[in-house]
């Protein structure tokens, strides 16, 4: 009874925060002719409702792909279709072909926000609660506190309920996948993750750890028929799920190829806008985007990503535990974010999800990372007019994680898992208090981020450098992320086997 | 004193709750605001740009100054900070001026003024009988803090709708806390300041008057709790009188000196309004109106009444200000006044005869607030907060009061919804925020009283659960039906009548608890 009340309190507060963010502006509000992601989602409803399936991904007379053409996998399209049916029921104007382009009204905004809330309640929130209750150590109060902090992660709230996207669906499905694997329901886990992948292709960032974990588990069962059979079952699940998702597109070989072409637009270049990854930051010094040929860029990004992904994947393959799995998810997705081709600033949410999962173990670093990830999206949020919710939710999140999870107190050297750093400094500076240094760095970096947020809002950039502040934001966040990827790799690779068994809850 | 039990050292949760709710308030800065926003902007402008002598004559805006002078001075003080945000908001002629800086300033002023409320709640927590449970959810002070700081009504009325009630209730609660702490002079001073900030608190003045006279001016009681006439202290009465009079003279003095008193009073007490607000507050008159409608419909049906002789408004109305009764006698302001006085008299007699300490006084205060809400003239539904907030103090100490509180707060807060469900759909988001919040207090209270079974009996629980289908019908089903066009006011009427039942029930139960309660203070003193 008490647990239930606490959970309902934490969910209620989470919903309150979400709904309170949601009456702020969305991306492209009142900005014709292209508007923004909000219009993209609405347009997909319009397209999927009015056109036959085989026209969805093609440039036809009725489907102008240059105007927010569908570039997400089929599940997103189906989701849009379902939303469109509801929309049609409520107000046919919302999804009328052509005529509804750029449609904006209060009731439509309410409807769109409600669809986000609905999927969030259906998929993401229960997954978070289940995760915290099965896989977080500590008292039930601490579990609720962790769940509460995860639910209030500002990045996801701001992008889903402010900017407007359905990240809670793909991330929620991925989280269900992680839950499945953690509970030992491998088939269910791979099903959920395949769905996630079919909702948003960016989930590929998470796919390698899933693969390595499952493969490692099969290998562990022995290379006899038992291991193979398990592997067979998993791959069949994945294949069948894929086939079901892509069924309408399988009639004609041109169809899936076109969909793939839409999903992976290599032609759009190494990066767009200002994103806090290596290429964009490097571009400040060397104009790689123009200097190198497209093929070299592709090769370079592929090689570097592989280089950074490999150690953690191999480690996971040899030791498929949940803890390793979570860290591998962090490392792989972060490597993809930093080095891969065509990265969006919002993709940092894919890294944020697994970082949320280590919240209870490494609260300070997780808080730090999550705040940085929100900060890295600042230019986007400012463009959408979300300054106020950005400031308020970030401060609230900082305060809550420090207060509820006592992030600052639970940060001894051991708890921060600084094994490698200790070894490095032991010889020359044996008396160095690493934990204190980390705390100082934490506050210093927060101060820097606050100062930069402040200047980007209040100061006008010099006329010569109109993009000065967005670039500074992305470089600063990039430096942070670089530090984080080294740290998390260090944690994953150096960590001795933890004493507590992760499976004890089963 | 006996009341002020020591509170544990670790008070960080209080800070966390206060900060948390402040964050939520900040998120609501850009939310929709009602005309009260413009009202207060206008007051800022007129106090800033005009001499005090013209404050109560200025009528450029239709929202003339109708709060007592101290509040005007409060606005005057605020206006000096407002200058740094946007000077244009301080121009009287800029009607409906709402630049982003203006909104930010006005919202922040409410949020910051709530610091008074925080302090008052903290003081109230000190007055509770703290039990020794280590569990945070077992602490009455924690529960009280949640109930007050996260109060749903205040959040709506202040931070969405726009008013300064948090600040005003802060003064009220602080004054109550001072009486609990036996610092009666301070309590009286605070209350007279409060009266000069907003005169609606006159409704609870009788409780203050009787309590101070009985328990403070008479220094002793007989062994059985009855009055000891000889113990009357003239010094105390004179001091109290001086305090009250000097506050009033500071506030109203200048206007009396200018000979403006009649003008000021006519602004403060406009009796031109109707019996009920456009939307009926859930009180006796809502039930009276509905009974009148029912009788007239029945009368027409059984040919007892001639439909042409009925006043027109009675068949179409609900949304008209002047409501004419067709069967039952029409109600005059004087009648409501008499009803109000009659409704609170027994409570006043009770605390005169058996004072029952500060808790008895608090109970009487709640009854005064609720009585005036039930029977008052042109009551606004917001006024229910005057009963709900002080009742929170009692609710965390006894199961019976918690039960009354639950019924009163749910129905009272629910009746505030129509404030949000305005014609524009956009604002529905906000009301949903509100719905989530409504439950926080209930869950918390249930957690607190989890030992000893359910708080409500099945009938009460069914009644409260009935609000859910009511909400669904009024919000989603009814707009789709054909009656929406002909009787658009029906959902509002239904809501207000349904809530009126709950409020009336809570009022009766509260009365019973006052008249039958045993002398609880005596028990504590003997412990």
Automatic annotation (TrEMBL), chain A:
Name of protein: Alpha-1,3-glucosyltransferase
What catalytic activity does the UniProt entry give for this protein? an alpha-D-Man-(1->2)-alpha-D-Man-(1->2)-alpha-D-Man-(1->3)-[alpha-D-Man-(1->2)-alpha-D-Man-(1->3)-[alpha-D-Man-(1->2)-alpha-D-Man-(1->6)]-alpha-D-Man-(1->6)]-beta-D-Man-(1->4)-beta-D-GlcNAc-(1->4)-alpha-D-GlcNAc-diphospho-di-trans,poly-cis-dolichol + a di-trans,poly-cis-dolichyl beta-D-glucosyl phosphate = an alpha-D-Glc-(1->3)-alpha-D-Man-(1->2)-alpha-D-Man-(1->2)-alpha-D-Man-(1->3)-[alpha-D-Man-(1->2)-alpha-D-Man-(1->3)-[alpha-D-Man-(1->2)-alpha-D-Man-(1->6)]-alpha-D-Man-(1->6)]-beta-D-Man-(1->4)-beta-D-GlcNAc-(1->4)-alpha-D-GlcNAc-diphospho-di-trans,poly-cis-dolichol + a di-trans,poly-cis-dolichyl phosphate + H(+)
What EC identifiers does the entry list?
2.4.1.-
**Spans traversing the lipid bilayer:** 110-132, 144-161, 173-197, 229-250, 323-341, 348-371, 387-408, 440-459, 471-489
- One Pfam family named in its UniProt record: Alg6_Alg8
Task: Give the pathway listed in the UniProt entry for this protein.
Answer: Protein modification; protein glycosylation
**Function per UniProt:** Dolichyl pyrophosphate Man9GlcNAc2 alpha-1,3-glucosyltransferase that operates in the biosynthetic pathway of dolichol-linked oligosaccharides, the glycan precursors employed in protein asparagine (N)-glycosylation. The assembly of dolichol-linked oligosaccharides begins on the cytosolic side of the endoplasmic reticulum membrane and finishes in its lumen. The sequential addition of sugars to dolichol pyrophosphate produces dolichol-linked oligosaccharides containing fourteen sugars, including two GlcNAcs, nine mannoses and three glucoses.
InterPro entries, sorted: Glyco_trans_ALG6/ALG8 (IPR004856)
Q: What is any one of the record's Gene Ontology cellular component terms?
A: endoplasmic reticulum membrane
Is-annotated flag, keyword Plastid? no
Subcellular locations according to the entry: Endoplasmic reticulum membrane
What is a single molecular function from GO for this protein?
dolichyl pyrophosphate Man9GlcNAc2 alpha-1,3-glucosyltransferase activity
Signal peptide residue numbers: 1-22
Q: What class of enzyme is it?
A: transferase
Identify the domain of life. Eukaryota
Topology of the protein relative to the lipid bilayer: Multi-pass membrane protein
Q: Which family does it belong to?
A: Belongs to the ALG6/ALG8 glucosyltransferase family.
Keywords, ordered alphabetically: Endoplasmic reticulum, Glycosyltransferase, Membrane, Signal, Transferase, Transmembrane, Transmembrane helix
TrEMBL record, chain B:
UniProt pathway: Protein modification; protein glycosylation
The cross-references to Pfam families, in alphabetical order and at most eight, read:
Alg6_Alg8 (PF03155)
Can you say where in the cell this protein is located?
A: Endoplasmic reticulum membrane
Q: Name one GO cellular component term.
A: endoplasmic reticulum membrane
Q: Which InterPro entries match?
A: Glyco_trans_ALG6/ALG8
Q: Which residues form a coiled coil?
A: none
Q: Which residues cross the membrane?
A: 12-32, 104-121, 141-157, 200-217, 237-258, 327-348, 360-377, 383-398, 405-424, 430-449, 461-483, 489-512
- Annotated family: Belongs to the ALG6/ALG8 glucosyltransferase family.
What is the designated name of this protein? Answer: Alpha-1,3-glucosyltransferase
The species this protein belongs to is Cyprinus carpio (Common carp)
